[in-house]
């Protein structure tokens, strides 16, 4: 009878104020909404008030097409949907059969296919299940679109920024309208934690279903303003009890008991479906509260809150919320990364800021940047900020202790490819920080292992593949020029008697036995990793030698280091020759040392470039003519450990603070010029 009376009141309104999209919104309309929309008209009026009726009329057949396309797709969103289907209003008969579950699945999957940025978020299943109770399947889909994309923007994603912004607005309203409650509560975050589900599910998760639908009526008519008003009314209704609470847990219990006592005396739902009637009987100590009275009271007391004021507060609090989230993201990232690196917390924080700034600058200055195309705030913390190869090259030049190397562009490119395990041309901060940590804080073995891996596939490739197609990286000609750098001859080390008796070698003598013992201990720890490294072939070894040659340029012990390269290279080639002779003693093999014979004078500054290029070209050609030879990492490591100059160079400490300060200034100047 009450339902018939409500329907008659609405029919009279339709006659007086129009029906459908031509209907005027008046005070009488609001009064009827507060009383609760009749069951027969609820779906129609939700579509009208939300504007979903216009979307559906503008896109005929769109939902059916989406369902067909999304049918059978398997994504992270569909997996989460399947997990939550049976948790959506399990007490309601409509979702105790495959008919209701299938409809819910189709609506959620179709929306996840339509909007992959949101995909699926918890609470969407609860809201959609209520929409399906009063609207057809396609209508429920368009209602969900209206809620997620217009009425509650940024609510349904991993960071729920929209909900957090509205919670901040709610806290601001509590300070204005309920000051005695804020004076009692020392920590305002209590209201945020307890009210999150109110905003995400429109009170559906905390109120009995027969009462919650009345709240949804008001939401579709008034938007978020209705939820804010009802939240204030709930807190005011329980003011006295909340003021006597000693902790947050007691306050949560008070609110939960209140929600259980809320009923809807006008609800036409059968007792088996109604939740409030049975629950409230067990809570005899708490008086029953009718949802219609509660909503009416919220309108009378807080109806002066204007939508314009809510939007203004949203804008004011949005920046604060985003800054808070950024601070949380930063703390989580630094906490995770700090477990794998040896940088101090302050240095790591500065590196993170430089990395993040480079990420954002690409988004602003380069519209076609893959960083912008792949940016997704819903990604895990570590992957929210990533940089591409060109950006890594810039940061590497600013921060790497090897940035003085003449082929630094090639090193940066090889390093990036080594870190880009997912092959999407993007790396995150952890990968960036770990490789820098190896350069600054790694042991001799770690640094050498990094250089070794840079010169073997997949990081090291031919010159043609190293030349980027765009983005201002090295051109092919530049890479060829870098690859033709001269390396001191191998034979020179054998003919130089002065090297063995050089007084410089004894200066600052390093305990080789101690380093060998350290290397042996590290081998035991990393035996599996070292054995997994492939052997370095002759072309890769030549490039590896060139890189070492360039690294040593400008070092105080530059000449000594160059001679050390000669000794190590000669030793390795002789070891390889002996090894091959042992394998096939009957076959005469020409010594690779002999075929690489060149003038025994170390190239110095000012020497003719053409001569060194000719020497290098003839040496490489001679080597190609012989059988392929290769070296294992253990061989190179053991040989280099015998040269104190090498050990001193790689064990030399570098101060990253100076690099960071210089990088900050240069980064700012470069972008200012742009």
Automatic annotation (TrEMBL):
InterPro entries: EF-hand-dom_pair, Rab-GAP-TBC_dom, Rab-GAP_TBC_sf. It comes from the Eukaryota. Residues 266-285, 583-621 are annotated as: Disordered. It holds the Pfam family RabGAP-TBC. Residues 36-223 form the Rab-GAP TBC domain. Involved in vesicular recycling, probably as a RAB11B GTPase-activating protein. Interacts (via domain Rab-GAP TBC) with RAB11B (in GTP-bound form). This is TBC1 domain family member 8B.
């Amino acid at each position: 009878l009450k339902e018939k009376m409500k329907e008659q009141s609405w029919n009279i309104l339709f006659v007086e104020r129009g029906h459908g999209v031509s209907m005027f919104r008046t005070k009488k309309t609001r009064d009827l909404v507060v009383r609760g929309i009749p069951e027969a008209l609820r779906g129609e009026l939700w579509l009208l008030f939300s504007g979903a009726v216009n979307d559906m009329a503008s896109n005929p057949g769109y939902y059916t097409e989406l369902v067909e396309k999304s049918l059978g797709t398997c994504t992270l969103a569909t997996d989460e949907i399947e997990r939550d289907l049976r948790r959506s209003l399990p007490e309601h008969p409509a979702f105790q059969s495959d008919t209701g579950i299938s409809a819910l699945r189709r609506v959620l999957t179709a929306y996840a296919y339509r909007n992959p940025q949101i995909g699926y978020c918890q609470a969407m299943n609860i809201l959609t299940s209520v929409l399906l109770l009063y609207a057809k399947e396609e209508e429920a889909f368009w209602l969900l679109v209206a809620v997620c994309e217009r009425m509650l923007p940024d609510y349904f994603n991993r960071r729920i920024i929209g909900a957090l912004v509205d919670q901040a607005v709610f806290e601001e309203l509590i300070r204005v309208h309920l000051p005695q409650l804020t004076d009692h509560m020392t920590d305002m975050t209590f209201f945020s934690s307890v009210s999150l589900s109110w905003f995400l599910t429109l009170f559906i998760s905390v109120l009995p279903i027969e009462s919650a639908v009345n709240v949804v009526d008001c939401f579709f008519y008034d938007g978020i303003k209705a939820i804010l008003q009802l939240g204030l009314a709930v807190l005011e209704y329980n003011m006295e009890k909340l003021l006597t609470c000693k902790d947050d847990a007691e306050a949560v219990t008070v609110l939960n008991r209140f929600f259980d006592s809320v009923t809807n005396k006008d609800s036409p739902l059968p007792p088996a479906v109604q939740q409030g009637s049975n629950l409230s009987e067990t809570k005899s100590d708490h008086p029953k509260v009718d949802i219609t009275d509660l909503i009416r009271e919220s309108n009378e007391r807080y109806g002066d809150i204007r939508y314009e004021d809510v939007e203004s507060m949203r804008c004011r609090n949005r920046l604060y919320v985003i800054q808070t989230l950024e601070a949380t993201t930063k703390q989580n990232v630094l906490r995770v990364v700090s477990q794998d690196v040896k940088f101090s917390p302050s240095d790591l924080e500065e590196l993170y800021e430089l990395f993040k700034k480079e990420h954002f600058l690409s988004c602003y200055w380069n519209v076609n940047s893959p960083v912008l195309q792949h940016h997704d705030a819903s990604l895990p913390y570590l992957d929210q900020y990533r940089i591409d190869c060109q950006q890594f090259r810039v940061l590497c030049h600013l921060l790497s202790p090897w940035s003085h190397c003449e082929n630094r562009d090639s090193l940066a490119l090889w390093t990036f490819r080594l870190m880009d395990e997912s092959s999407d041309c993007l790396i995150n901060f952890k990968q960036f920080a770990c490789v820098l940590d190896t350069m600054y804080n790694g042991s001799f073995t770690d640094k050498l292992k990094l250089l070794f891996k840079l010169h073997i596939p997949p990081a090291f490739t031919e010159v043609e593949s190293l030349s980027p197609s765009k983005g201002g990286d090295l051109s092919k000609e530049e890479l060829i020029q870098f690859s033709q750098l001269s390396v001191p001859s191998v034979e020179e080390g054998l003919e130089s008697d002065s090297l063995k008796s050089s007084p410089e070698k004894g200066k600052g003598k390093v305990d080789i036995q101690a380093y060998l013992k350290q290397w042996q201990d590290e081998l035991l720890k990393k035996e599996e990793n070292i054995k997994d490294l492939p052997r370095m072939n002759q072309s890769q070894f030549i490039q590896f030698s060139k890189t070492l040659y360039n690294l040593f340029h400008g070092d105080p012990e530059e000449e000594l280091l160059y001679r050390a390269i000669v000794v190590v290279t000669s030793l390795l080639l002789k070891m390889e020759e002996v090894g091959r002779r042992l394998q096939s003693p009957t076959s005469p093999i020409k010594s690779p040392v002999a075929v690489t014979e060149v003038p025994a004078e170390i190239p110095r500054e000012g020497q003719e470039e053409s001569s060194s290029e000719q020497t290098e070209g003839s040496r490489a050609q001679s080597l190609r003519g012989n059988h392929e030879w290769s070296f294992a990492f253990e061989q190179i490591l053991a040989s280099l450990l015998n040269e104190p100059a090498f050990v001193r160079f790689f064990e030399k400490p570098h101060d990253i603070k100076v690099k960071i300060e210089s990088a900050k200034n240069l980064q700012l100047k470069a972008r200012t010029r742009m």
